[in-house]
């Protein structure tokens, strides 16, 4: 450690020295070295910090090829930190740069890393089809490149043999993950053969990894000798090279091998060796804990083995008893006792994976069932024998026994049993690589389960069908269809389960009575609850007495007619309502290891809480063999698994990651989450282990034999995941819509919901149907037969458990969406739903590409860039508010150049991204843009002064440019001066925004204004955020006198009252309308506003006085402006103007006589103690007129009158009845509950609320009103909204935590950010 500290100190000293000298190459190199030191110490967050410094310096100052090692290192760090999306971003960037540089070596390394990340993503997901596809694609590509590099290395210094061997290890491990054990064995064996052919060192770490994974493969194939030899070779190599972690994990696997063969003393011995090695390592507490857990588990298995031996002695005694009882009335009872003993032995053998013994006991159990003439038990026994052979990998024998079980269930008419057997047959066929036949078996099981109305088995069959289509056949459309069915069925089962549990809690006595009616056979089967709790279901439907002679039973069976039923007949007193669920458990309780999702394993734990089993399901905690394992083994949450087995640890099990070999192509799994869910090591090329979850190997999902969700995945977890979705039915198709895609402030956005529904419907269409690019137009969405409202919340929909229905009212051609989806599929990327929504927007033309706020990055935008290149022609491209960098601009330059379109206006909106100065270089070098570019918005990007020459070039060459926005771009006076120098009288520039840049000197601004005065078309200037002195004000006055300005944005300039007064006359002198004047936060006083010339301000369309103390006195002047017939104001912003609530009321009242204002912002205008003063005034008036009422006659829009009175005794406003006609509250915009006011509210508040509501109702032209943060109650807000809706249909509201917005559909609030308002040509 002291050596590492000195190394780190020296590296940091070198870094600081390089930075001080301005040597950027050395600065980046030393930052990388420091990051590598921290990585080797396991300090990943600190390492990432330094690697980011390396990346930023390289990106800014060095060549792109210098980013290759940095991207690789950052991608590795994010993978170790389990931030997979970020890891993929940098790994794909690494691959992209490597391809551009034509660097095959880096391409091979990047492909390997991508394969690792996608493999990890697949191991954590139930249904991630894309991840397994991509893992295969990148591992195969890495293998191809490794072969090419091996044949023709680019340099003589390296033969790239290590990468070639590691590629075999990775590919073999992936095949093992997919349960293709023979293929995995061949690939890994070939890797060892290459080591021998190339004379690789006997103790090479690559050999160690190959031996490790081969040991696992042979263990799954039950080839114990080969498994033992390979594991020992792994241990020997790790010991020789001093890799104590690998050696410890080798001993863990050797312990598991002996545990599987029931050699428990040897297993504990090897675990103890592993424990000693693990304890010698620093920060390997997790590894130590897991080894100790394995030792405890083996000791539990020893106890189970002792119980088996005792039960075998009991069985021998029962066999002696049956010899005496032959032909007597006790014969059947003795046979039932013997059957119960065998069932206990079968169950305990299953718990410790003693499959040879399991087979022996199952065969004996089958013989007893034959003597009992019990076809139900006989079918169960055949299933037990089939399970034994399946685990022993004797697949032909397993199929034979399962078919006999099928015949028995057919004979007694048990559809349940038939469906379960078909699933088990499918699992055997899948292991035998007869995948089509396996899928047919699963499909048949599903058909039978649907016919018998058995949802749990339906779910199990669907999970297996999904597995086959996803893993075996790579059928994307069928996989999606099955996933939708699975989700819907799970939701239905969970709902029924919750209702049943509630009912059982209320009826425990009834359950007890039902359990008391179980057969004598059940009392014998103390450890076989599947027998003890099952209803008797003999084919005749008769109940036999235990001491009845067997010959009598045989004759009765022979003479009776067979009864065919969909499920087991319940002939006891158990209630019919419990029959289906109980019979399912009863029939299949002893087969829970063989049904469900294929080969996912449950492990046993000594945890007391987890080992606590119910009286009905005492065998819930079972240990399943790990002879075969599912490709989906890690799909079940480890925190929910019940354990009784061997937990074998991932190589990444320590809290601090392992110091592994630095091969860039190594497959390293660093997930701490995989630690708890492993049952076997699958080591990667760096001696890491791929964690694999062991659940019952007969299933593909975390369900028990009955198909019910087991404890491995409780309904709660499924429910929490499902709560994020809304079910929507379109025709016969059911789609699940993520709630976040179509909600705003927890309320549904109906238009977004329609767009998402249309896009998801299009995505689930078969490829052939998508080829036309036709998307549905969804006009109506119904919920429970009524139109869905925007006010509806997702929670309300889920509480009501309803599925919304969408109707298709036509189709629209969206060629760009079609191309975008196609390119996503081609690049194995998931389509971005935000992008799809934006492209689907029916309110914009196909020539306008608006994809703002879509979380796009340089890599994720690639499919869209490719689609744009295919479309070629478009007039507007809005990429604002994303995470795009210079790479995107390079790609766009290629798009514009390829289009070769030199005509047609183009708007390019790139604001609020991560573009640097060189992004503008791409515009400068694209001749196509010189004739087309009219609007360029690059604000909110860190351009710095390095962009000055580029901006100058753009202004000179782009002759059509009339709008330029470089606000908040970290530029200074130097760049502003270059902009000024580039302008001449031929420029058509009409709009310029340079605000919020610093420092910008006054002289520079004066020079700029002087140049602007020479332009013929210039009309709008934005200087917001710049501090303007008197020289600048004088220059502005001169500019206003020279040009006819239509807009001046001076927000935050602190120009002051004098400056505005000096500027107002030349600015507003003309008769033409002045479009926009922004004087927000300019330090104006109330005297200025009070004394303004109303006639002078009448020509303004948009006026912003935010942040200036207008006060009520100034508010009166503004009221005079609003009532002036010549007033042209359309937008008025009076936020934070200290108007007071009385001033707010007067402003809104003035709108009754205004026919122009459309948007009004009166937020944050409360004055301290104002409401208290209103109350005091009203109280005084109330005392003087104690028994009088103040009558307010409110004239409504329809010339109706409603008399409102304030009852001062009770502080309650009342609405009197009209004798002539009943006036509804809706007519006045005041609902009954609000208009009468709450009894506990003050009359002052009530009166103010009513007056405001009436004023809002009279402001007919207003389309957007903001009353946020004015201390109004929710009741008042509802009153205002009722008044708002009385004259505006349709209307919308946004009320949440102080926000109070009322709007029309056309002027929807919060729809556009202030920085996103478009500048239109003037």
Automatic annotation (TrEMBL):
Residues 529-538 have a biased composition (Polar residues). Residues 566-581 have a biased composition (Basic and acidic residues). It is found in: Chromosome; Nucleus, Nucleoplasm. InterPro entries: LRR_dom_sf, TONSOKU, TPR-like_helical_dom_sf, TPR_rpt. The keyword Nucleus applies. Residues 281-328 form a coiled coil. The keyword Nucleus applies. Residues 520-540, 559-583 are annotated as: Disordered. SUPFAM superfamilies: RNI-like (SSF52047), TPR-like (SSF48452). Keywords: Chromatin regulator, Chromosome, Coiled coil, DNA damage, DNA repair, Leucine-rich repeat, Nucleus, Repeat, TPR repeat. It holds the Pfam family TPR_12. PANTHER family: PROTEIN TONSOKU (PTHR47684). This is Protein TONSOKU. The lineage of its organism: Eukaryota, Viridiplantae, Streptophyta, Embryophyta, Tracheophyta.
